[in-house]
Amino acid sequence: MKLILLGAPGAGKGTVAKQLTQLDGSVQISTGDILRGAVQAGTDLGKEAEGYMKRGDLVPDSLIMGIMENRLQEPDCQKGFLLDGFPRTIPQAEELKKLLVKLGIELDMAVNIDVPREVILDRLTTRRTCSNSECQAIYNVKSHPPKKEGVCDKCGSPVIQREDETEEAISHRLETYNEKTAPLIGFYEKEGLLITVNATSSEAVIDAIQKKLGK
Ligand code: ADP
Ligand code: ZN
After folding, report:
1. Measuring CA to CA, which residue among 17, 3, 5 is closest to residue 138?
2. What tens digit of pLDDT does each residue of 59-69 get?
3. Euclidean distance between CA atoms 139 and 146, whole angstroms
């Protein structure tokens, strides 16, 4: 399947994407994970992106489009992909549309995961992430803690609170979402690709996607 996952930070895009990869071998492409990996590795891309990310601002569109143009041409994308955290602005969506035409790729749909603001705020402040850039497993201190406190179940690395998950950065990320990313809902509706799912469990979101795909 070839999907765009839309939704505010904390809506569950990453969790849904990870579960969908188990179904048909589609790959998760998370621009946030790619950028955090680049920051940790200290690459030029990482150095450029770091300051924006810490503040909860978006990284410039040109950097993101460069990443995505390369990523979508890697062979593992042929089975399908789940775009998690991209596009995030109208210019990115317009560029993506052109890129997909150029590459001869057709999207199945854009899924808007709509979760109430209280749930989002609660999730983001209690979210913890594996510090290993190859792993980036997601935990939640209340609903899904690691088996051993502070240690990743999957790889044994320390589990940390992301630098952009302080209360200040979180509220800034939500403002950025409302201003820059929420307009994509209208964009994909006009494209005839949008489905909106009002669900706070990832299973319910996945069921809705499978129904829509006719599976
Ligand atoms: P979340 O969805 O939880 O906010 P992500 O992991 O998707 O977080 O992204 C973390 C940060 O990486 C964003 O706050 C932003 O600075 C940057 N980022 C990720 N994807 C994009 C994108 N498509 N365009 C611009 N910046 C991005
Ligand atoms: Zn890990």
Report:
1. 17
2. 999 999 999 99
3. 7
Rounded to whole angstroms, the Cα distance separating 122 from 125 reads 6
Whether 8 and 120 have beta carbons less than 8 Å apart is answered as yes
58: left (phi over 0), alpha (psi -120 to 50) or beta: beta
pLDDT at 215: 65
Cα(176)–Cα(81) distance, rounded to whole angstroms?
A: 25
Question: What does pTM read for this prediction?
Answer: 0.89
| CATH node for 2-213 | 3.40.50.300
- Residue 179 alpha carbon to ligand 1 centre in Å: 14
Q: Which residues line ligand 1 (CB under 6 A)?
A: 9, 31-32, 35, 52-53, 56-59, 64, 85-86, 88, 92, 164, 173
Query: In this structure, which residue's CA is closest to atom 2 in ligand 1?
Result: 9
- Phi, psi angle pair for 74, to nearest 5°: -75, 145
Cα separation of 161 and 140, whole Å?
10
Q: How many other CB atoms sit within 10 Å of the CB of residue 70?
A: 9
* Residue 209 token pair: 């996607």
Which residue from 75, 85, 78, 74 is spatially nearest to 18, judged by alpha carbons? 85
User: Domain boundaries in the chain?
Assistant: 2-213
Give the ligand whose atoms come closest to the C-alpha of residue 17: 1
Neighbours of 1 (CB within 10 A): 19
